Amino acid sequence: MDKIIRIGTRESQLALWQAHQVNDLLTAQGYKTTLVPIKSEGDIDLVTPLYEIGVQGIFTKSLDLALLNNRIDIAVHSFKDVPTQLPQQIVQAAVLKRGPVKDLLVYKNDTSFLDQPDYVANIATSSVRRKAQWLRKYPKHQLHNLRGNVNTRLQKLAAENWDGAIFAVAGLERINVRPSNSIDLDWMLPAPAQGAVVAVCREDDTFCREACAAFNDTETALATFIEREFLRTLMGGCTTPISAYAQIQNNTVHFSGELCSLDGSRFFSISREASVEQAQYLGQSAAEEIMAQGGAEVVAEIRNAR
Question: Quick one: pLDDT band at residue 237, thresholds 50, 70, 90?
């Protein structure tokens, strides 16, 4: 194993944490590795809302190009940031065992405003999914754009006159920066593949594909495949308020999916179950049912609004 596997990663603390997980899994097998930090477009422009800069692949494009140009051998991504269609010549090599999937609210003072129906709270997030879900539950609240890595967003929250901001539990807990003034949002269904980390490599790189296959978590891979098929069938991306979560218990996949209009006023949800052996089309069929029930109209409106 004289070959050194070059692991590409974004430069944020969270991205480096994820890359180190892959690094440790490879070195545990005896492989030699090195980390190669690469800046992404999503890390450079921290002002423009994601839905205005063609978010599809914005956090993965730079790493994918480095992979195709043979500057790196493996790219490590937050799976929820990865487009449902991978670039040609790039394949999914391994999905790591999933971490926490929930979202949470970091609040400024207390959470009493959540129980005050007439209070107009100011809540920050860059996610259209979180915005739509929040407005569905709290239609009077004002939502504000919040970009940057986890630490930047926490600093921004502290500096602004906001009541709170929404984050992924995994993002804060993995780098040990979850504040005590935070609560899990149990009612908020996560983004497809939230909490999962994926390693991709070149299609013709059998060495890296075999190296990564050893730590692929089959349950997480199946669950995220179902969620991403739900997303793909609804023709969605990070600019569409789509949520999906698949859990596997006792050889049964339990799936929940949601589609919201941008303002949260219209809402479609679905729950399905299937055995692991018959779950391949679970996400796709659930999305097709939502489309038939009127979701297609909402998806069309969202696409026209971009």
Answer: low
Looking at the annotation, which residues are catalytic?
A: 81
What is the reported pTM? 0.91
- Work out the percent of the chain whose per-residue pLDDT is above 70: 92
- 302 vs 175: CA distance, rounded Å: 34
Tell me: do 70 and 211 sit in the same domain.
yes
Helix (H, G, I), strand (E, B) or coil at 93: strand
Number of domains, the chain: 3
Conformational region of residue 52, where left means phi above 0, alpha means psi within -120 to 50, and beta covers everything else: alpha
Give the 3-state secondary structure percentages of the chain, helix then strand then coil, rounded to 5.
35, 25, 40
Q: What is the DSSP letter of 264?
A: S
Sheet with 197-202, strands from edge to edge, namely: 32-37, 4-9, 74-78, 197-202, 90-95
Q: Which domain holds residue 157?
A: 103-184
For every residue of 167-227, which 3-state class applies, written as one string? Answer: EEHHHHHHCCCCCCCEEECCCCCCCCCCCCEEEEEECCCHHHHHHHHCCCCHHHHHHHHHH
